[in-house]
Design brief:
heterodimer; A: about 90 residues; alpha+beta; Alpha-Beta Plaits; two-stranded antiparallel sheet; two-stranded antiparallel ribbon; about 15% strand; B: about 425 residues; FAD/NAD(P)-binding domain; D-Amino Acid Oxidase, Chain A, domain 2; 9-stranded mixed sheet; 8-stranded mixed sheet; 19 strands
């Protein structure tokens, strides 16, 4: 089972138009981009064959790993908790 | 006049315990929880060591939604093709003072928050505490959305990603070598299947930790815990090492759950949730400032967690920190002084308790793990090779055990083995 299928089982309420993570691609070096693609447990950071990074906030498990992985590049990633009633809703935890 | 004596940010184990203990002593308490219900944003592996909650709510396990009482401990060293397991089954952990329970946080945290509510707290969820309210620099409450809420003291129990604790200057940005990322699947299985597969009776549970190939030889490991009618299986890996990994974490997770030792244990199960969370593993090295004027830091937000490889603890420390924070606030109210002169008593209480004593005892564990990569690579391979030589019969002339095993020891190096062994028993 791939991670997209796993995420589809979870309960999310996506805050359309108000992403709780804002990525400033221009501030990310190559190494950090690569790191984001491997550390995210939801696999939401992807690189295409040209090295262009894409990020999908829907499916975020709110762990904060991307925040830690980019901490050495101030301003590269703005990380907040989703607004009240939005985001992941763990039914087991 | 403040709206409340205390505002608690976060209805996890630290927050709800603190709220409960304060309300029991007649303080007015507001709890703000960002999830739709207490527990909705929380994840454990997981197992709760019951001793600290037992002191606050004796016999809690009879009433609380615990899953199973752990009577079976397994620790494995895994390679891609082998798995060596130590299995310890015992009724010696039956005493409530040393019992541990598998739990699922959504249900368990909601129960504990309910206890706080019964004791008289206002528990509001979902409510995200966006910032601390200050008056001439002094913390006087929190802002949550449109609402300004005031209190004499604010208890930050807002978890490992404590943005408020950071903004208040109590703690630094999380360092990649001090946190691990965990991901987990909850797999539903019928109760009798779990009992049969893991050799358990009704109500009995198992905790199983794995080192080696599950984390791809990186600092970290796999875990499996049995619940009543589900199994939690997952991985925890150092963020610093994970960032250099060639394999994605979700792919490592899938490889682990599909591995030969794991797959039959999960066969026929239904995945009902996939979750992830950060684990503060830096111990004393990441200990933040625990109190300031009108402000306290609790639980994961304070990094109160310890991973020794064979046991992983956080929730029992969170509960104890909640109780001690509450005791400190109760004293502050009696004195009418919520400045750090009084609130710093919280750290003293933690120092005199198992919380900071244990973190002190095991202060070198994080460094040991970080600087002994052999624990996660060479030693699982050594175990696999040793047991292969022990059990393999292929018609070739057999050799005495000494001759079978000695070359392996030389491969890793006697000095390395002795050194790592010596360091391990002194750090873990």
């Amino acid at each position: 089972m791939n991670v997209e299928q796993k995420l589809s089982i979870d309960k999310f309420v996506v805050d359309e138009g108000n992403p709780h993570i804002i990525l400033h691609l221009e501030k990310l070096d190559e190494e950090t981009r690569k790191a984001l693609t491997v550390v995210c447990p939801a696999g939401l950071y992807t690189l295409d064959e040209n090295g262009t990074m894409a990020f999908e906030v829907a499916g975020c498990l709110e762990c904060g790993t991307c925040r830690v992985a980019t901490a050495h590049l101030p301003g590269a990633l703005e990380w907040n908790h989703p607004r009240a009633s939005f985001g992941v809703d763990f039914r087991y935890g | 006049m403040a709206d409340y004596d205390a505002i608690v940010v976060g209805a996890g184990l630290a927050g709800s315990t603190a709220a409960y203990c304060m309300a029991k002593e007649g303080l007015s308490v507001l709890v703000l929880e960002r999830g739709n219900a207490a527990g909705a944003k929380n994840v454990t592996g997981g197992r709760l060591y019951g001793h600290s909650l037992e002191k606050i709510l004796p016999g809690f396990a009879d009433e609380a939604p615990v899953e199973r009482k752990v009577v079976r401990e397994r620790v494995s060293m895994m390679t891609d093709d082998s798995c060596f397991t130590a299995d310890f089954h015992s009724s010696r952990f039956n005493d409530p003072a040393s019992a541990s329970y598998t739990v699922l946080r959504a249900e368990f945290d909601a129960w504990l928050a309910g206890k706080a509510e019964e004791a008289g707290c206002d528990v509001v969820c979902p409510a995200v505490a966006d910032e601390l309210l200050r008056d001439n620099g002094k913390v006087v409450g929190v802002r949550a959305g449109e609402d300004d809420l005031t209190a004499e003291v604010v208890l930050l129990a807002d978890g490992v990603n404590s943005l408020l604790g950071q903004k208040a200057g109590l703690k630094k940005e999380l360092a990649a070598n001090f946190v691990a990322v965990g991901c987990k699947e909850v797999v539903e299985l019928p109760k009798n299947v779990i009992n049969d597969r893991f050799g358990l009776n009704d109500g009995e549970g198992m905790a199983h930790l794995f080192a080696g190939s599950p984390s791809n030889g990186m600092m970290g490991g796999g875990f499996l815990y049995t619940n009543k009618e589900s199994v939690c299986v997952g991985l925890v890996v150092s963020v610093e090492e994970m960032a250099k990994s060639s394999v994605r974490l979700p792919d490592m997770m899938e490889k682990f759950r599909e591995s030969a030792p794991l797959k039959p244990l999960l066969t026929g199960g239904k995945l009902v949730e996939y979750s992830a969370h950060l684990v503060p593993e830096g111990g004393l090295h990441m200990l933040p400032v625990l109190s300031a004027d009108n402000l306290l830091l609790l639980g994961d937000a304070a990094g109160l967690c310890m991973n020794l490889g064979y046991t992983v603890r956080g929730m029992d420390l969170a509960v104890a920190s909640g109780q001690m924070a509450a005791q400190t606030v109760i004293e502050a109210k009696e004195k009418g002084d919520y400045s750090n002169a009084t609130l710093s008593g919280y750290k003293k209480k933690l120092e005199n308790s198992f919380v900071l004593k244990d973190l002190h005892t095991h202060r070198n564990a994080p460094e040991f793990m970080e600087h002994t990569p052999r624990m996660f690579k060479e030693y699982p391979e050594l175990a696999a090779e040793a047991f292969t030589r022990l059990f393999k019969v292929d018609g070739e002339p057999s050799r005495l055990m000494l001759k079978k095993m000695l070359p392996l020891v030389f491969k890793v190096g006697i000095l390395n083995l002795a050194k790592d062994g010596f360091k391990a028993v002194r750090a873990l």
